[in-house]
């Protein structure tokens, strides 16, 4: 299989993971192929039903992709719900802020790592606003952010404390307030 055939094959998200692994091994020094492997893994991973795409080969490939130079590959690893905690911890120190920001959005990132990311630059801190694993004390701070999109993500976050949602329900931005009201209503239904 040549590079073009490998790239074409990787466009199929139903390609067996054994074949994805074989392609990655054959072309692992090629950043274009590594990026396409990362994209293949992203496309087959459901954010809403991650257990359906869980597979030991998926994890093995994510660990390997975390080591490549291609920023896009590390970006895909950082956001994937199957990425092991130790890899997320390592990527939380990546030189590229977007990689760190995506680690901040990953619900599997440990709270201690999320706490460390709160001291990072704005794009990384903003990533924390929608993560249900973000410690409540940081969600309270982010609820006062000047950026309405940060407040919106805090309003939609299932981990946001009720008292913060009640405050956001009075936000001057009607979309932020509505999102907080919807989240509060959902909480009451599930209580």
What does this structure look like?
With 191 residues, this protein is mainly α. The chain folds into 2 domains: 1-112, no CATH class; 129-191, no CATH class. 63% of the residues lie in helices and 0% in strands. The protein is elongated and about 60 Å long. The relative contact order is 0.07.
Task: Summarize this structure briefly.
The chain has helices at residues 3-10, 17-27, 31-43, 56-65, 71-79, 85-91, 97-105, 111-117, 122-128, 136-142, 148-156, 162-168, 174-190. The protein is mostly helical and 191 residues long.
Major β-sheet profile: none
Rg over C-alpha atoms, rounded to the nearest angstrom? 19 Å
Number of helices: 13
- Residue share in β-strands: under 5%
Distance between the termini: 55 Å
Mean pLDDT level: 91
Model regions low in confidence, pLDDT < 50 over at least 5 residues: none
Q: Roughly what percent helix?
A: 55-70%
Q: From N to C, what is the helix and strand string?
A: HHHHHHHHHHHHH
Structural class determined from secondary elements? mainly alpha
Shape: elongated
**How many domain modules?**
2
What's the total number of strands?
Answer: 0
């Amino acid at each position: 299989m040549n590079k073009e055939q490998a790239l074409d094959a990787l466009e199929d998200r139903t390609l067996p993971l054994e074949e994805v692994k074989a392609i990655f091994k054959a072309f692992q020094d090629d950043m274009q192929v590594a990026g396409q492997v990362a994209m293949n893994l992203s496309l087959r991973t459901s954010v809403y039903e991650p257990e359906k795409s869980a597979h030991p080969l998926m994890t093995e490939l994510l660990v390997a992709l975390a080591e490549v130079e291609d920023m896009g590959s590390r970006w895909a690893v950082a956001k994937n719900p199957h990425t092991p905690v130790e890899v997320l911890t390592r990527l939380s120190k990546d030189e590229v802020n977007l990689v760190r920001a995506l680690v901040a959005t990953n619900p599997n990132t440990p709270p201690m790592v999320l706490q460390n990311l709160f001291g990072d630059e704005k794009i990384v801190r903003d990533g924390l606003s929608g993560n249900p694993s973000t410690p409540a004390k940081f969600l309270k701070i982010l609820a006062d952010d000047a950026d309405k999109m940060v407040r919106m993500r805090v309003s939609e976050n299932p981990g946001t404390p009720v008292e913060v949602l009640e405050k956001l329900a009075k936000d001057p931005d009607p979309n932020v307030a509505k999102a907080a009201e919807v989240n509060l209503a959902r909480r009451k239904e599930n209580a």
